[in-house]
Amino acid sequence: MLVFTFSKVATKADPPAALRTAHPAPPAELTYRDKVIGLTQEVTNPFRHLEKDDKEGFKTHVDNGRRVYYQNCFYCHGDDLDGEGHFAHGLNPPPANFQDPGIIPNYQESFFFWRISKGGPGLPPAAAPWDSAMPVWEDHLTEEEIWDVILFLSEYTGYRPRTFGEAEH
Ligand code: HEC
C-alpha cells in the first residue's frame, strides 16, 4: 500500500508530496441527494449477494455497470480500465488504474461508492493539495448505477474489493 501511495504521489512535481493522502478514509456517512447513506465498514454492495443467490440477476447488474462505465468513465479511466483514457494525459493526478493490484483489493465497496459519488471535490483536506479531476457522479448517476459500476470494475479486472472483517494487506 505504501509503495503504491508513494509512486502515485511521486509522479507529481509539487512538494510537499509526502503529506498527501491518496486514499483517505471515507466518512462514516454521506448525503446522497437527500438521503443519508451510512458508509460504516459493514455496508456492502446491495447487489453483491446476487452473485451467489441469482446469477442471472447479478449479470444484469454487471451489464448495467458496463454500460455506465463506457458511457461515463472510459474517457479518463480507459477502455481497459488501466487509467489510460483519452483524457488521461492532461490530468494530474492521473485517473486511477483499476488494473493496479493496489487499488480494488485494498478497499471496500463502500469506499468506492464514496469516491464515485463525491469525486475529487469530496476529498477531505488531508488529500489536499490534490487537484483531482474525478467528477461528482451523484448528480448524474443513480445509487444503483454506482453500485453496478463497482460490480463491473471488479468483474472486469478480476479483483475483488475487500470485505468487512478481512485483514488489511
Ligand atoms: C474527467 C476524468 C474522469 C472521469 C470521466 C472519471 N474519473 Fe474517476 N478519477 C479521475 C481521476 C483524475 C482520479 C484520481 C484522483 C482521485 O482519486 O480523485 C479518479 C479516481 C477515481 C476513483 C478512486 C480510486 C482510488 O484509488 O481511490 C474511483 C473509484 C473512480 N475514479 C471511479 C470512476 C468511475 C466509476 C467513473 C465513471 C462513473 C469515473 N471515475 C469517471 C478522473 C475521472
UniProtKB/TrEMBL annotation:
<dbReference type="GO" id="GO:0009055">
    <property type="term" value="F:electron transfer activity"/>
</dbReference>
<comment type="similarity">
    <text>Belongs to the cytochrome c family.</text>
</comment>
<keyword id="KW-0408">Iron</keyword>
<dbReference type="Pfam" id="PF13442">
    <property type="entry name" value="Cytochrome_CBB3"/>
</dbReference>
<keyword id="KW-0479">Metal-binding</keyword>
<dbReference type="GO" id="GO:0046872">
    <property type="term" value="F:metal ion binding"/>
</dbReference>
<keyword id="KW-0349">Heme</keyword>
<dbReference type="InterPro" id="IPR036909">
    <property type="entry name" value="Cyt_c-like_dom_sf"/>
</dbReference>
<dbReference type="GO" id="GO:0020037">
    <property type="term" value="F:heme binding"/>
</dbReference>
<protein>
    <recommendedName>
        <fullName>Cytochrome c domain-containing protein</fullName>
    </recommendedName>
</protein>
<dbReference type="InterPro" id="IPR009056">
    <property type="entry name" value="Cyt_c-like_dom"/>
</dbReference>
<feature type="domain" description="Cytochrome c">
    <location>
        <begin position="60"/>
        <end position="157"/>
    </location>
</feature>
